[in-house]
Amino acid sequence: NTRVHLAEAETILRQRINHNWMEFGVTITDPSTTYIGPMVKIGRDTVIGPNTHLRGLTIIGDETNIGPNCIIEDSTIGNCCSILASVIEQAVVEDHVSMGPFAHLRKGAHLMEGVHMGNFGEVKDSTLHPGVKMGHFSYIGNADIGDNTNIGAGTITCNFDGVHKNQTVIGKNVFIGSDTMLVAPLNIGENASTGAGSVVTRDVPAGEVVVGVPARPHRKVEKSD
Fold it and tell me: Who's near 3: CB < 8 A, 6+ residues apart?
């Protein structure tokens, strides 16, 4: 009949949900600070850390570590992942992904198998293919990042021109140097590299190294490199 009664009822229901998941085989290290919605699904041998909120149509795989301090809503997380102190909204995370602390996946983010995403990174409406390593303090928006590419710390996709959101496409085995600005629309070919602090405004052919502001060709990557 009052908001006090509502809070008491919610506490009872939350305790029941947490109890059922622990009986199923999920470890919840601090049930009193763990919030799991009624539509959430969690795999066996997953560990949920304190102060974690799982909301909406969220699905968590087996043997995954979530938290402490995670908020995950309407997202899918695969098996054997490790997610620490991060926010995930309407995103897909495949198996063996590590994230955080303080990483943020926004709507449309897709991290494929084996991706590593460092602290204070943000991904929106983008796909990171298997084996991509994304350094800390980076923003990736409206992009497609190829297999085994390294995204250096401080890299930014400049995807908004004031009117439209533009696409950045990066091939396989690319090395993006720290503090690179990628001005979309942009295509970077396989095995290419950018120097630290570069501002890339034009497409980069496969195997080419570009440096500077604006970035200009420096040399071709040799196989021995």
Answer: none
- Residue 33 Rama label (left phi>0; alpha psi -120 to 50; beta): alpha
Residue where the block lists tokens 């974690």: 52
Q: Token match 């009949």: residue?
A: 1
Please count the helices (runs of H) and the strands (runs of E) in the chain: 1, 31
Q: Which of 143, 86, 77 is closest to 112 using CA atoms? A: 77
5 a catalytic residue: no
pLDDT computed for residue 135 by the predictor: 83
3-state SS assignment for residue 22 = helix
Question: 163-190: buried (b, 16+ CB within 10 Å) or exposed (e) per residue?
Answer: eeebbbbbbbbbbbbbbbbbbbebbbbb
Q: Which residues of 17-46 are buried (b: 16+ CB within 10 A; e: fewer)?
A: bbeebeeeebebeebeebbbbeebebbeeb
Q: Which residues pair with 200 in a beta bridge?
A: 182
> Would you give the DSSP letter of residue 9?
H
Cα–Cα distance list, 217 to 53, 130, 212, 213 (Å):
47, 28, 9, 11
For residue 56, how far is the Cα from the chain centroid?
19
pLDDT digits (tens, 9 = 90+) for 28-73: 999 999 999 999 999 999 999 999 999 999 999 999 999 999 999 9
Write down the catalytic residue from 96, 110, 136, 164: 136
